[in-house]
Design brief:
alpha+beta, 11 helices, single chain, 2 domains
Length: 409
Amino acid sequence: MSNRKLQNLFRSHLDYLDRLPQPLKNRKAISAIAFCRTPDMGTSYFTCDKQHKPIEQFHACRNRSCYVCALKSKQDWIEKQKKRLLNVPHFHVIFTLPHEYLSLWRYNQALFASILFKASKETLLELMADTKYHGVLPGLMIALHTWGRKLTLHPHVHCLISAGGVNASHHWQECGQFLLPVRVVKSLYQGKVQSFIKQAVEDKVLSLPSDMSMTEFRRLYQQTYRKEWCVRIEERYDHGKGVMLYLSRYIKGGPVSPEQITFCDRQQAVLRYLDHRDKQIKDVTLSCKELIKRILEHVSPIGFHTVRHYGLYAASSGKRQLSCVKDKGTLVHAKVGTGEIIRNMVLSCKTCGGVVHLIHRSWKKHSKAFSINRETSESPFVQSGSRGSLTLSPHNTLHAAPHRAFHLG
């Protein structure tokens, strides 16, 4: 199956990953991706009232870095957003972090991500509330992305903002075809990010890389003031559905789709991507270790919310949001597709076709150090369907080759 390519890739390099020091969030992601819906995650057993042969269902990991589990999660997320987003035009705004800060990002991922959220939120809400522009409170949804087209580190946030909002008279006010002057947005956003970074240094919560002194940091900090920061305001959309679907591709399942991997053996992989500069489909060849490294670099901190809602879309907006929903409606009736086939399978007995019920569950007990089971395969290929990879039985039950215990360190 195509959606098992990433799982097979990780399983074929577990010895390599075992030798590398990994943060806790990466250990969890490795375990989840490699063993989702295999016996290593545990098994549920179902049978009918006539006690025919039990059906085995291997457990899902439900980790947001797992592409296999992400399909249903994306669909659920889209349905929730359809009930939240107003049926009005929206703008799409992208805020990026200068690449000069990438070394600091790697040591302060959660801190810098929070700074991006706070700076972009305050920039948009403050300018939209300014009577010189619109004087309204809009609906705002922000999603964090950390990767570029070739999975290189490229932290940025995508903002979906309503083309209008509630004014001082508590009425809905459109903002037309123009959101905000981009130069003003850039200047305010840059100042806020720099201010938050400076505050983090003063509060001693910013960790510097081992090869960076405080003098070098100050020099870097001053350099970023002299460059123009990248902020894009896209043309107005008639509704927020398009951007919402775009964001849904990246909220769960990791930075890469298995369909993008057109070839993969134990040494190298070919990744297909869309070059945003010339809109051409291109291929890049990476070693398997480099591909795994790039994927793990984008694992979010444990418990960190990568999508947040503000303004009229905030959970605390209360009556103002309800009033807008009554006036404008939502996207709840919009017909959208995720581009994925998600089957809601109902289990039935393979012998008599009767309804089955749960009779037993078994769980694999992992230690605090995340000791997990792994498959050993001699096959040089990790593409789905190759020898040693996971396959489906005629009864849609996953089977894996014999495995042994190991420790992720």
